[in-house]
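Before relying on records like the one below, remember that each one covers exactly one chain. Contacts with other chains, cofactors or solvent are not represented anywhere in the record.
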Amino acid sequence: MTLRAVLVTLIVSIGTAADCGIGRGAKTVTRILRKLGITPMRLFLLSLFIVTSAAVASASDLHVGAATVDITPDRPVALDGQMHVRISEKPETHIFATALGLESREGDRVLDQAIMISCDIVAIREGLIKLVREKAKDKLPGFDLNKLFLNATHTHTAPVTMKGDRYSLLGKNVMLPMEYTDFLVDRIVAAAVQSWEQRKPAKAGWGQGQAVIAQNRRATYADGTAKMYGPTNVPEFRGIEGYEDHNIDVLFFWDLNNTLIATAVNVPCPSQEVEGLKVIHADFWDPVRRQLRERHGKDLHILAWTGAGGDQVPRPMYGKAADERMRRLRGLTRLEEVARRVVSGWEEAYEGARLEPVTGAVLQHHTKKIDLPWRKVTEKELADAQKAVEQYKNDPKEQWKYLWNQGVVDRYEAEKSGAAGVFQMELHALRLGDVAIATNEFELFTDYGVQMKARSPAVQTFLIQLTGSGGYLPTPRAVAGGSYSAIIQSSRVGPEGGQALVDETVKAFNNLWPAPETTKARQ
């Protein structure tokens, strides 16, 4: 019998004895209760509340499964994330896809489901989720495939996925993007199936730590302009453009024997510490995973969730000499230093979360297609894009820049013809106990994430960006400052769409935490 059941039985028994006046002990209990202002009726109502609470708390069980698969190519590949072609020379680390399967049940009845898969790639390119769902449809019986989603860690040292005409003439030994995509889809589906088949009753927990990982990478200047990675040691420098979120939000999952089986780590910063290398590399998530498994078990499954960090990077914009000195004194590389901070923040979160594991945490998963307005192309932006198109169209080495600018011209023409339509995004909003989780398809500037968290009704809110490939979503002040990440070439959806995304996300959270009905005043 559980402690709750013992307490319920005891209170009900005392209440019954007090009402009936049975025995000296019952009379004593009655006198004590009345001195405390607790009448037999109030005691009965209290017992009824506890019985009801016990029924609600045990009404559902959370089942959890997790799996990690290697998605490292066995041949050289084109690397994603830069404006020029890079071919990988070797795998410096392995890269992974990690799946987390969640299911809430009441007896044999399924209440809700989710499969979330983090991938060590730069983005979830258009069409990838469709391929995964099609491949998985006969392998996940009873699962609603609309409740499966992917996210990218945004490492810039991972393969190009989906179609890419500029990679069609690579050497014979190079794995082409669609060839790698086929391999990737098979591995992602394998992880999803394995996580789903291994689900079993489990406990969940959540916690928060702090670590300076995300650092805003846009410098502002006296003339009102801004620049990504702009110099800060010049007289014109005036400050860093936007906010930095130094919270690390973490989910934990234990089996019923209290073995930690999976964790999801939400860092509001992309993994871009080694972004320029010509190797396969998971960036700072590689040392983070290795250190957590050394401490908490080699079979721990670790989901890497990048929070709202489109304007962030894990490198300082100033104070670099002091940073280098401290790393030298610690004997750490910059990659190891970032990992040290993430793991330290994770341990802070774990220290609290393990004191309050939750059995039967509520799981709700809502999905919705939301329509966001395209960022409108101004006449000046059109003129600048047309000039760049003419400059690069006949230069084979600059085809990326040509296509980048031609896209702006095409958008302008679509706007003028009335064929622009809207940007449709798949939004996932989940409740897990006291935690809210929401997805977006962008490199979302941190200010939008702060708005979502501040307005969320949850105790703790997780945001997962790059569940698609929507490009940068800059703030109004970033657009005013200009530069890469905020200019029209970088951004398909602008501040108007960003605010709509915030409002739709908060609305989805509020639907998961409905406000209590107003109690009618007594007549």
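Residues 177-197 form the longest helix (21 residues).
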